[in-house]
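Q: What would this chain look like folded?
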Amino acid sequence: MITHLNGKLVEKNPTNLVVECAGIGYEVKISLHTFSAIKSDESIKIFTQFVVREDAQILYGFATTEEREMFNHLVSVSGIGPNTAMIMLSSLIPSEIAGAIVAEDVKTIQGVKGIGAKTAQRVIIDLKDKMAKFEFSSDNIFVENNTKRFDALTALASLGFDKKAAEKALDKVSTGDESVEQLIKHALKIL
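A: My prediction, written as structure tokens:
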């Protein structure tokens, strides 16, 4: 299993990045939380989770081990796949997810795109005891970017949303002061 990559950052987008290690470029799917946390330095270390499906082998990347741990907890719940877990981690930071689970806040979990009432309740039932044992930091790092709207639109399109619907959602939430992560979080609530 690939637990982390330590190498040269070749490409960085809101939903994925490419890390070159020993001459091999690894495409890594990331959350918006990780996108915000990773600086555009040449050398980076990213924690990973390798997922094998019938039709694909995907490497998911995380800025911290606690985000990777939350991802693994989320995908252990029936009805939550890796893509839904990444949308959850893009909408809420790990400490917010853990807090919502411990507080049995169905509304917050259900506020994530693709999560219905039954799935939100299942997440709480399956993970409440596990979340009480862990402490997650509440750090939420935002990165300034001149192309915030474009990055947000690209991320939403990569997550599978219709481009025109994503543009309309961004028009409704954009005041010019938000980070890419905030734009996407607000747009996800509308979509």
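The mean pLDDT is 85.
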